[in-house]
């Protein structure tokens, strides 16, 4: 049995599929977490049911890619049942999609999710009446707490019912949705809205920005300072293992100096990355993150971006690849292209090890300040670039709309799933691409001569070095930049395998320039492939050239300014 | 009145912290400003958010103290804990 979950963004579809399948799909607290259809299997009373989580949509009227995905799925795959997930606190708005879904003629069950939040707002829904009007079963749930899931399972086994069709066009459907909502909704005395009370402070025109900067500062202290003992412990472990294994013979040398040192040089930063993701997960799930974005509303629209682009930019702090895929929900193609082009400037987690390595070596006293500065430079360059694109090659009107989710106390399980899934991605890369690269790096640093200067690595580094002569970086560092094209973690890995002591071969100003360069220079291979897939080869090539030029000029500027200050 | 006292307390902490770490001091100034604006507007939701951020910062300061032995006056944010719970009960009550 194939069951599709359809609903508006941020109504808890993924939480519901997790509750039904005991799965661990990533749950967010902002619109657009699901950008591709995902499947989860479960056995209900011995019957195998495949649940398909489709991207959140408001209607089938616009031309965004996620609406296309949902529509195509419903028409071509014809599921046995559709579960229409509705945010109980926003019934009327959600009902419009329900009426459109009815036109597909597929058996349906309506789930009124997050019923607790609706009740907190004094909203009561007569589900029996709603069921009578629409001629489909209606179930009330709180997916995150597992409430109503057993009843829903029973209804799934019953197979749902084909809904009654209402209205022939957009206007009629909107009117009917209003009428139905009026008939089934009972709004008791208006309770004090806790969300509004919090919003008044978090989005206060004088305090909002200082609060945002304070939270950002806390995030970097947590990522850098609090994770430090774990980093030191891992560093010691890998150094000890590397020393024990290394010895005579190429195999021992490969394992000790190549694999363990190479992979270890990246894995030591695992605690920093896990701590960063933990903090970001808390911000996301609590509902604060979109507010932080909304704060920038007054000036953000001037950069020509839409509310949905901002969500994509925030996702870029984790990994640029899913962030680029998330631009599918942006309807305006020019805004979509602008968003995916500037996304690589948002500092992804793969770049964090580079900053920590250099910050520890040169700016240990003000490490968190420098790291925060690097992240802010990335945001600044992304926004300025967006403005330039929207005023020139991607000209057009901008409508800044962002949906603010409610504040929620993050649930431990969701925090764990979100943090673990993102950290797992880093570990998977360590076990695959970084492992392979460590062998390649070991080979090119040991052959044809064991002296690095005369090895293949030395030759490549020295060949490319003149391009970076204004920066005065060692050829080993230049090689690390070349290798970083594969994946940004490989920059640190190359430095590790080559045994470079960065504090001996460069000045603090050069280190600052190097960090800014790695922040901005061409996206990694996977990101370029994502840009090519989403926007075409022309924009992928443009992205490489543009980011390289920006990185070059910004790094030079920062290095010059840095040399006056440091 | 209580909010005003907290505002002044965090203002003093922010001033002392300047010499140790300017960005920690900035956070304490922000907390102080939230309480003081709450006092001016006589709104408890400002006190609630001020206390919330103060507690989060205190937890973080404690973690930093354990991890790196660096002291911050942000630790005194724990003083806002009882007030936070009182406000939470009051603001979320029907």
From TrEMBL, chain A:
Main subcellular localisation: membrane
Spans traversing the lipid bilayer: 207-227, 259-283, 303-325, 337-363, 369-389, 426-445, 512-531, 537-559
Localization per record: Cell inner membrane
GO cellular component, one term: plasma membrane
PROSITE patterns per record: G_FEOB
UniProt: GTP binding residues: 7-14, 32-36, 53-56, 113-116
Record keywords, A-Z: Cell inner membrane, Cell membrane, GTP-binding, Ion transport, Iron, Iron transport, Magnesium, Membrane, Metal-binding, Nucleotide-binding, Transmembrane, Transmembrane helix, Transport
Lipid bilayer topology: Multi-pass membrane protein
Sequence ranges assigned to domain FeoB-type G in this UniProt record: 1-162
InterPro entries on file: Fe2_transport_prot-B, Fe2_transport_prot_B_C, FeoB_GTPase, G_FEOB_dom, Gate_dom, GTP-bd, P-loop_NTPase, Small_GTP-bd
Binding-site list for Mg(2+): 18-19, 21
Highest taxon above the source species: Archaea
Name under which the protein is recorded: Ferrous iron transport protein B
Gene designation: feoB
From TrEMBL, chain B:
Taxonomy, superkingdom: Archaea
Annotated keywords: Membrane, Transmembrane, Transmembrane helix
Stretches that traverse the bilayer: 6-34, 46-65, 71-87
Descriptive protein name: Uncharacterized protein
Organism: Geoglobus ahangari
């Amino acid at each position: 049995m194939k069951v599709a979950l359809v609903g508006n963004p941020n109504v808890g579809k993924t939480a519901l599929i997790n509750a039904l399948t005991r799965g661990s799909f990533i749950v967010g607290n902002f619109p657009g977490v699901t950008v591709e259809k995902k499947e989860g299997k479960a056995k209900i009373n011995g019957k195998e049911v495949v649940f398909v989580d489709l991207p959140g949509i408001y209607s089938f009227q616009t031309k965004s890619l996620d609406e296309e995905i949902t529509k195509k799925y419903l028409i071509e795959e014809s599921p046995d049942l559709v579960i229409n997930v509705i945010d109980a606190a926003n019934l009327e708005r959600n009902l419009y999609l329900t009426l459109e879904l009815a036109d597909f003629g597929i058996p349906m069950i309506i789930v009124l999710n997050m019923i607790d939040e609706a009740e907190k707002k004094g909203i009561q829904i007569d589900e029996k009446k709603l069921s009578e009007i629409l001629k489909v079963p209606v179930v009330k749930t709180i997916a995150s707490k597992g409430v109503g899931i057993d009843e829903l399972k029973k209804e799934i086994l019953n197979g749902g019912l084909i809904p009654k069709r209402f209205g022939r066009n957009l206007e009629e459907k909107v009117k009917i949705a209003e009428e139905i909502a009026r008939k089934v909704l009972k709004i008791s005395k208006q309770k004090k809205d806790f969300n509004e009370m919090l919003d008044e402070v978090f989005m206060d025109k004088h305090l909002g920005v200082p609060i945002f900067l304070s939270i950002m500062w806390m995030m970097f202290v947590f990522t850098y300072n609090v994770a430090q003992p774990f980093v030191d412990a891992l560093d010691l472990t890998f150094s000890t293992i590397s020393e024990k294994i290394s010895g005579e013979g190429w195999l021992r040398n490969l394992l000790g100096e190549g694999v363990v040192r190479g992979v270890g040089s990246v894995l030591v930063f695992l605690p920093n990355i896990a701590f960063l993701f933990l903090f970001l997960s808390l911000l996301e799930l609590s509902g604060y993150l979109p507010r932080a974005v909304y704060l920038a509303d007054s000036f953000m629209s001037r950069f020509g971006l839409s509310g949905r682009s901002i969500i994509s930019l925030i996702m870029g702090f984790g990994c640029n690849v899913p962030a680029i895929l998330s631009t599918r929900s942006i309807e305006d193609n020019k805004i979509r292209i602008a968003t995916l082009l500037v996304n690589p400037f948002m500092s992804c987690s793969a770049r964090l090890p580079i900053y920590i390595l250099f910050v520890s070596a040169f700016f240990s006293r003000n490490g968190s300040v420098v790291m925060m500065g690097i992240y802010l430079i990335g945001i600044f360059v992304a926004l300025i670039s967006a403005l330039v694109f929207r005023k020139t090659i991607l000209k057009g009107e901008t409508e800044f709309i962002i949906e603010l989710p409610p504040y929620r106390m993050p649930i431990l399980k969701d925090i764990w799933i979100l943090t673990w899934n993102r950290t797992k991605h880093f570990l998977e890369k360590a076990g695959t691409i970084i492992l392979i690269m460590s062998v390649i790096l070991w080979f090119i640093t040991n052959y044809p001569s064991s002296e690095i200067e005369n090895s293949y690595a030395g030759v490549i580094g020295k060949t490319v070095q003149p391009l970076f002569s204004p920066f005065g970086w060692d050829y080993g560092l230049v090689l690390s930049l070349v290798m970083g094209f594969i994946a940004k973690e490989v920059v640190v890995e190359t430095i590790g395998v080559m045994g470079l002591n960065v504090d001996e071969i460069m000045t603090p100003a050069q280190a600052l320039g190097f960090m800014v360069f790695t922040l901005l220079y061409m996206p990694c291979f996977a990101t370029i492939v994502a840009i090519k897939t989403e926007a075409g080869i022309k924009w992928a090539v443009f992205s490489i050239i543009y980011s390289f030029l920006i990185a070059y000029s910004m790094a030079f500027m920062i290095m010059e300014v840095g040399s006056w200050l440091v | 009145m209580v909010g005003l006292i907290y505002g002044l307390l965090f203002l003093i902490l922010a001033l002392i912290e300047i010499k140790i770490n300017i960005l920690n001091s900035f956070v304490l100034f922000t907390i102080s400003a939230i309480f003081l604006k709450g006092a001016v507007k006589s709104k408890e939701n400002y006190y609630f958010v001020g206390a919330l951020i103060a507690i989060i910062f205190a937890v973080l300061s404690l973690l930093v103290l354990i991890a790196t032995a660096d002291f911050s006056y942000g630790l005194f944010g724990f003083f806002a804990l009882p007030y936070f719970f009182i406000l939470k009960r009051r603001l979320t009550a029907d």
